[in-house]
Amino acid sequence: MGDFNLALVIVAVVVCVLVLLVNVYLLVNYQHPDDVNQAYFPKLVVVLGLSVAAVSILMLPADVANRQACQHAIYSGACTLTLPMKDLWLVVYVADAVLVFLVIPFAMFYYEGDQDKTIGKRLKSALLWVLTSAFVCGLVLGILYGLVGKVDFTVRHLSSSATSFPSSWSTFSSSQPCIGSTNHLCDAYGAPASSETTWTMQTTFPEYVVALATIVGSVLFTIFGGVGIACLPLSLIFSFIQRPKAVITRSQYIKEATELGKKAGGLKKAIEALHQEERSGSKGRKWRKNVKAAEKELLLLEDDMKALEEMYPQGEKAETLWALTVLGYLGKLVLGIIGLIVSVAWVAHIIIYLLISPPISPFLNEVFIKLDNVWGLLGTAAFAFFCFYLLVAVIAGEMMLGLKLVFITIHPMKWGGTLMNSFLFNVGLILLCSISVIQFCATAFAYYSQATAAQEIFGHTLQSLRGIKYLYKYNVFQYGFVILAIITLICYAAFGWKKRKPSGRFQLSIGDDI
């Protein structure tokens, strides 16, 4: 058994190294050409943030494997090489909170600072903003921890009478297992309801920070995840339905390109006007609204350009490009169908296992256990896939709402075209929601992940924390997640299949700045 535990430690180290290498690969291939060979600090933060998020997701399967490593232990020394999961959970999630609330904001303030200023002034400005935010957050956390940083456990006081030790064991049998001839059960077994009371204790500060970060992440996860789990597979399927059926003619290409050129010209003038307003210091509410509208219009214009290039491939390899385009849409259809199955399974599992009391069936818990019986890591891999799918759904939901709602800033992730501010924003969102994803998965798969360190943190402490325990007691986030998923499914199925109509030249909103 000790050899198995040592192998688990080695696997954990290897996986961490692989995660780091994969994240470096993603950064190199997703970064914008303007950020090549510069912005090294934001890139370091991006790689570190993605690695922490990925490791945090993989820690729950590792926690389960760590528990299984000792389930057949005969002597106490058999598990000396297991991972200290509770300490690792706290380290990872405190690092998660530091990245989300301190490091990433500092990197974004520095990256988006005025390029005309010197590096020292940009660092000073970013540090000033972050220290101010850290002071306010630390003050609020300290006050809340001192006032309501306690957990209330419901306990029942049990007691039993004592009797003399028997001098002979001959009176015991299967029909008489207890001492005495009248009471075959302990007195404590029939304790009255009045013996139930509340046991209050102070939680640790790291656990309290994790709990509050989980609440903030749960709100975002419920909104973005609920929308994304429906629109992610449907967007892939409708992308296949709306695919270009054939190559257009050259005259059609020239006509469409001319229209896009006119739209690009109007958008360029609007952006120049916004730059002029920025230089003059007129950065009010209308200006910010126009900036967000211009960003979204630019993103839609790029999508139109890409669609036009797909419908009229050029060059010596035009036929090959068209064949790859067709295969790409077929791949989207396959991924969309798989994603739809996973999304339906998630929603069904939440309803069957979490919202209905008592649960109708363990459902996915039982599936993972049976997969583990087939091969040791198969159930773990399936479990990790379902957790990662939720994170991808969060990003898809943020993108969808960002296109529809003006007050949400959109940060697209594009292969070879992602600026560092978009990278940092999405990494922060992933980190913030990863805590909630783990808590959500630990609750949804409580049967599969029972007796783990994650269950102790997220299943007991978090759900007993004073002031917020009722959010989990009445499944507020689960109900919100399912309701938003169903609403998004209905709306997307009813209106998502329609192609977006051209909006013509981009116009700025007219109004006085505040």
From TrEMBL:
Compartment(s) where it occurs, according to its Swiss-Prot or TrEMBL record: Membrane
Record's keyword annotation contains Transmembrane: yes
Membrane-protein topology: Multi-pass membrane protein
Coiled coil: 284-311
Keyword Coiled coil recorded: yes
Source organism, top-level taxon: Eukaryota
InterPro entries hit by this protein: LMBR1-like_membr_prot
Pfam families, sorted: LMBR1
Ranges annotated as spanning the membrane: 6-28, 40-60, 90-111, 123-148, 208-241, 333-356, 376-403, 423-448, 476-495
UniProtKB keywords: Coiled coil, Membrane, Transmembrane, Transmembrane helix
GO cellular component annotations of the record: membrane
Name under which the protein is recorded: LMBR1-like membrane protein
Species, as recorded: Musa troglodytarum
